[in-house]
Amino acid sequence: MSTDTEQPPRTSLPGLAELVRHDLPASLVVFLVSLPLSIGIAVAAGAPVAAGLIAAVVGAVVAGLVGGSTLQVSGPTASLTVVVAESINQFGWAATCFITVAAGLLQIVFGLSRIARGALAIAPVVVHAMLAGIGIVIALQQVHVLLGGNSLSSSWDSLAGLPQELRSVHGGDLAVGLLVIVILVAWKRMPAPVRAVPGPLVAVVAATALALVLPVRVEHIVLNGSLLDELRLPELPHGSWATIALMAVTIALIASVETLLSAVAVDRIRQNASRRTDLDRELIGQGVANMVSGLIGGLPVAAVIVRSITNVKAGARTRASTMLCGLWVLLFSVALVGVVRQIPKAALAGLLIVVGIQLIKLAHVRRAQRTGDLIVYAATIIVVVFWNLLLGMLVGLALAFALLLWRVVRVSVNAEAVQPNRWRVTVDGTFTFLALPKLAAELARVPAGADVTLEMTVDFLDHAAYDAIEEWVAGQRAGGGTVEFVEMGSVRMEGATDGPPARGDSRLMLNEALAPWRRSGGDVDPIVAGVAAYHRSHAHVVRPHLDVLRDGQEPDSLFITCADSRIVPNVITNSGPGDLFTIRNIGNLVPADRQDFSMEAALIYALDKLAVRSVVVCGHSGCGAMAALHSELVTGSELDGWLANARPSLELYRLGHPVALAAAAAGFGPVDQLGMVNVAVQLETLYAHPVVRRGAVERGVVLSGLFFDIATARVIEVTVDGIAEIGDVGGRLQTVSAVLPV
What we know:
- The protein is of the alpha/beta class.
- It has 3 domains: about 15-380, no CATH class; about 410-510, Transcription Regulator spoIIAA; about 555-735, Carbonic anhydrase (Beta-carbonic Anhydrase, Chain A), CATH 3.40.1050.10.
- The chain is built from 32 helices and 14 strands.
- A 6-stranded mixed beta sheet has the order 8-7-9-10-11-12. A 4-stranded mixed beta sheet has the order 3-4-5-6.
- Helix 21 links the parallel strand 5 and strand 6.
- The radius of gyration is 38 Å and the shape is elongated.
- The chain starts with 15 loop residues before the first helix and ends in a 9-residue tail after the last strand.
């Protein structure tokens, strides 16, 4: 049975030309980045140097072959340094290899359980804080090595021992380590051709060369034989099996989370995104690699985002690049053991200090501050640095969950006097028993017998909150006051006790806003029901806007449109009460003979009395009047006489009016083409009207044409010679005045 993430079987290996052109160069670049970091991580963890090299080989070859990503590069990672060092201190190196095998087995179980995407639900702020805490621990430990001493087991010891270490600095080690730090910091500012060479490699080579010529002693790393000589079998650990299991779970979780985050990042930046990472298979591949690495004496492995992105940017196309990288590490470790022995410990310390500091991202700190998660970020770092990684992760997750719970369940309750003896109480948010103390405090401010408007915008209402509101309302009314409910949220008091409380549908408000456009069913008068809904939900919102209009109107536009029930002028123009002076008739017509007294009175009143600044004619698609005109339908009623006012529009349409041609080119049918031509003709008729023309000349009154396409809910601009899309500027409708002769 196939799934969405299964990859199609490959019928053959990648072509030799593609491998030589893309994958081979990319593998060499990744190898040069991976080699010094693998050695440095092993030294930082207190493991044998060979363990880092073994992990680099196994991670690249085994995870690259079995995993679900074609371009991820796995190996020893700085994020596991702290927990591995703690395991070595408690159980020894051979037992840590056994724990690595157990962690790999857990990862295989994770992959087979198909829970990979569930691991991505861990709050990003916790992951970022964990990495930052690991970076601080690494930097604190490696400062001692940089000064010529040994790394200490805890951050407390590292800080406490730093003054003593500063009094006994080894000049040679310090010079070598500082050289590495300077090169790595300056490397980002080098020209692009120079940066093509990996900075860590340049820094370590330069530091090794400096150590060879310095007149003082510099401590080097210890590698007793070739990589093959350092292979070791794991041993059963001695101690509490609960502690051992916890250590294995910690390694498995950290390695899995880092692998999945790396996979998501690689999928985002890779050029060919048609083959996404199979996350479950990737966890299985990582588990197999960790079991193999632990069985032969290697460090735990995970997908490393720095190496993976380097692989992608270097042009890798297939798994061959990842696997070749591991083979280069193996070849180097077997054939060039003498070169490895020349690397100074302080050089790796400088490298790891920079790597550790780079795990602290200022962008993550700023984001945590902006999103209100800074306390989670800071607490996680403190616990990781001064206690341990797993406890830090658990504390961070607990704080993140508590913060989320507080944000989700909190509610805003406010009571204020709006008029003498009239109060407004607002309840906004998730309304549960947790809000009852705040609710009681605010309701206590409302005098007995006062008239109250209770505005509720809630998305969840439990029975305790419902009972509290009901009891208070009953008491208020018993004291002679009134309580008017205004419920705008997706959950209402009505029906709150019909069943278990549930979160409301967030589309409820939208559904209510569109309800007038929908047919009503049943025996209830839709107008009466609509008025009731208006009073319950929206009247109080409209009321403040109407306060300034109670003594008169100052509309901005005269809006002439069709009487069709599907046209709602205020909706399609995003306008409100007092904005439009509207005239509606069949076909949005302006009789040229000026014999329609209703239209004449409206034009004179709008332009001379109200001094509107614009006049708009708006047609629409599927207009019945235009359809009757186009088919020259004769009804034998007064409708025929009215539609005679649109005969000039029909004649110009048949002559190929420019608006009709533009509408046809845009894919509109004959009736809609005629409707747009009719808008253009009504604009010209309006401009010929003496009242409108005087307003245009003396006050700059603008004439505009619109056409509402019902099928797409889009409004199109119509001028006397064409049509155009209307832009959205700052969320407001923008129209362009018609081009009319003066």
